Amino acid sequence: MKKNDTKITDTLGRRKFLKSSGGAVLFIGASGLLPNFLSCTDAKGMQGNAKKHDITSWVRITEDGQITIYNPAAEMGQGSMTALPVIFAEEMDADWSKVNVEFSPQESDIYGSPGWQPGTKLMFTVGSRTTNSYYTVMRNAGAQARHVLLHSAANHWGVPLEELTTGSSEIMHEKSGKKIRYGALVPYLTMPETLPDLTEGALKDPKDFKLIGSQIPRTEIPEKVDGSAQFAIDLRLPDMVYGVLERGALHGAKPTLTNEANILAMEGVLKIVPFDHAIGVVAMTLEAALKAKKALDIQWSDAQATGFNSQDMYPIYAQMASAPEKGSTVNEVGNVDQAFRTAAKTYEADFKNDYVYHAQMEPLNAVIQVAADGQSAEVWVGSQQGADTKLGIPDLLGIPHEAVNVHLQYLGGGFGRRSMNDFVLECGRLAQEMAPKPVKLLWTREDDVTYGCYRPLTLQRLKVSANAQGDITGFSHCVVGDGGNLVASGARNDHYAIPNQWVEWREASHGVRLKHWRSVGHGPNKFAIEAMLDEVAHDQGTDPVALRRKLMADSPRALATLNKVAEISNWDAPSPEGRAKGVAFVEHGSLGTGVCEISVDRNTGKINVHHFWIALDAGVVVQPDNVKAQMEGGIIMGISSVLKEQITIVDGQVQQSNYDNYPLLRMQEVPDSIETVIIPSAEHPEGVGETATPMVAGAIANAFLKLTGKRLRHLPFTPDRVLEVLNS
């Protein structure tokens, strides 16, 4: 990331403050070169903020025509570093070949997008919400930048603004034949007394888009290919020292170190820092820190997880699902009890899923330097950000938010894990002890597997009622597990016309660390829902696609994805001998239906996924090629988690430690083809990063049912479990 060279660190006497209406504020540097556009609803309030913060803008233009657009979202391979600036550049009418992209400062008041609660602004790259939440923000900001340029040209030429048009970083006045490039206009920039309150109608008609929807190479790919891209783990600072923590394998256990003197006497060791959950070691080199960590003699206390055995929980969860007391209501439509009383036939099944680890490529790490007086700090980290854009460091150090500067780096994978800032706070504590030396904290892979934060273990009890005509009249879904929305999200059936529905969550807690995992509760819940629908169709002798067509009668956009994927997968054509197809629908922001074709080795129990087809409605698609890449990555991650990935806990101890005993999908196991068709839409963009992954389990289970007549109900579908089902 380039260092921002436009700052406001003193009074506005050195900068000319030009007021605006709500929506943007323009600062012009003393050199007159650069306008800074800041999203702001209160210009007076922003003036106060300007005195407190180093402030940069949405956009910077230089006289040679170079344009820098600031990206407010984390970039972890999902393409936000291109998608959001493309939206801005579209409304600004910027020449994309002249655009550079940098991370914005981590200041949510300026660069945040509308949050999940009214009146909040967040910089939080989670939940497939980045393009969805920033789409209007970036369009408005780009259009306001264009308006200021038009205003400046109108003043410079002495012509009405309404007579001017723009195109590819150029302003034209047709009557006089005058043209001026954006860069050439920089010395003449002036700010209007007020900026228009740009509404949807004042923005471009989607039919006039030139950048949005085009095939535009991602801005960060070249430096990732040539190795110049900087992740936090790459960072080296002068006098930097290294920190590691021993956290143990029992979540929540408290440590007592018994050989502190011996550790401090080891070569290169600088300090031991105790935590409630760990013992930290700071050393001159990473090698010295790791050697000292290995030599730590720690006595661990018991914790809530002591005695917990994950695989023994399913019978207990089943008993909890059978208890007469209801859990927390997640969704209620109609009267399911009445539907079951009057049903011609009912179905019931339990679905299970084990804990799953995030397995992000780059190990967790951060670099923090606390000033000698402890009153300021610099943070370099790959983070999915959060409700606090300073990642908890101000509260940890007891200093103002403006005294902490976060330098966001590329993320080598997130999947929800890096939306939790425990590792940042650990690094901050070490840096506080070592000030003013910068400290790099590194989690080893073993640290992250054994002390990770997992997708929760759950049991889902589904009950379905049908009338004499075979129509589904009632759908009851009971989720048992820990984590609230981590287990309950995705259990609704808003796109299926089922008149009576009930979804509830029954809480269990075991002291195991949990966190959002790509698609959160949608993975287990959509698996259970989609597999249950196919079990009903199988029993009734109904085609699974035909059953869903009937259920989607009132949801035309969802139905369109179903029909399109049936077409591209040749659903009605027979599969080759020994293969079968399965279908599953998912709504996670965007709407998608997937079909997979599998085979099963009946001797080993190994499932092979040969082809996957997806039809997707994501609203306006900013980067079509990147959306397809997101779907492909989501499918591959889904297959890995569905067929292989499993965290097990015995007596509170995580049994896996690295990729030798936590296997991931290998390259030779990837499907022969993954085909995605994007259905054109002018609707507001929806997220795509979490749509593909949760459709995999249902599609594979349904293909397995069609191929073998047997039901897979426990994730992951490991070979031993498959053989057990086949031989049952």
UniProtKB/TrEMBL annotation:
Keywords: Membrane, Transmembrane, Transmembrane helix. GO terms for molecular function: oxidoreductase activity. SUPFAM superfamilies: CO dehydrogenase molybdoprotein N-domain-like, Molybdenum cofactor-binding domain. The lineage of its organism: Bacteria, Pseudomonadati, Bacteroidota, Flavobacteriia, Flavobacteriales. This is Xanthine dehydrogenase family protein molybdopterin-binding subunit. Residues 226-304 form the Aldehyde oxidase/xanthine dehydrogenase a/b hammerhead domain. It holds the Pfam family MoCoBD_1. It comes from Maribacter algicola. Coiled coil: none annotated. The keyword Membrane applies. The chain crosses the membrane at residues 21-38.
